[in-house]
Amino acid sequence: EYGAEELGMDATAWFIAGFSHRSVMVGTAAQFAYPILGAGFFEDPVYLDALHATVGFDFLRFSWQLQDTSAEVMYLAPNFGIRYEMYLAATISLALCARVGPALSRSNHPDADNRVYWSTGVAASWDVFDWLSVVFEFDWGTFNDTLRLGAMFRF
Questions:
Q1: Could you tell me the pTM of the whole model?
Q2: What are the phi and psi torsion angles at 6 (to 5°)?
Q3: Which of 2, 50, 56, 64 suits 40 as a labelling partner, its CA being 20 to 30 A distant?
Q4: In terms of residue numbers, what domain contains 143?
Q5: CATH no. for residue 39?
Q6: How far apart are CA 150 and CA 28, in angstroms?
Q7: Is there a domain that residue 1 lies in?
Q8: Is 14 left (phi over 0), alpha (psi -120 to 50) or beta?
């Protein structure tokens, strides 16, 4: 049995990592989620689900080396999005999520400019306590493949 019949607000703190052919990315992020449909689409007591609107920001740092030249760029990416989450067991859930927003850059490289930031992802979470979950998310978007590891605090 679940402790609640619907999911409420939550906040997540993320560590972000990304790797590509020529660059390495690391970063941090914060996200706040508010339930649009806290009780979800299904009235099945076994599969608790919810639809959340999200707002957050990502701070990302890339560095890469091309022949004899190295460069780095930092992005601050405020974003908003949506997340659909469904519990498959009492403490395990899966989620689909999408984000979009501007990516504001600061760089020593002339080709790194402001851009539109977007990502889509799949996440799995494990509830350590009623108020704390560990979340692993795989994203694909503006910055290619991105891995996120986070702590989600439920209110």
A1: 0.87
A2: -150, 160
A3: 56
A4: 10-154
A5: 2.40.160.20
A6: 9
A7: no
A8: beta
> How far from 5 is each of 24, 47, 134, CA to CA, in Å?
42, 10, 21
In a domain, 79, yes or no: yes
pLDDT in tens, 47-73: 889 999 999 999 999 887 777 777 788
pLDDT tens digit sequence for 70-123:
778 889 999 999 999 999 998 999 999 999 999 998 876 666 678 899 999 999
Number of domains in the chain: 1
**Residue 133 in tokens:** 């979950």
Integer Cα distance of 152 and 56 in angstroms: 13
Is the CB of residue 81 less than 8 Å from the CB of residue 98? yes
Give the CA distances from residue 23 to residues 11, 46, 74, 118, 123, in Å, rounded to whole numbers and listed in that order. 29, 43, 13, 19, 24
Say if 130 falls within a structural domain: yes
For residue 63, the one-letter residue type is S
List the structure tokens of 66: 């091309």
Q: Which two tokens stand for residue 89?
A: 């067991």
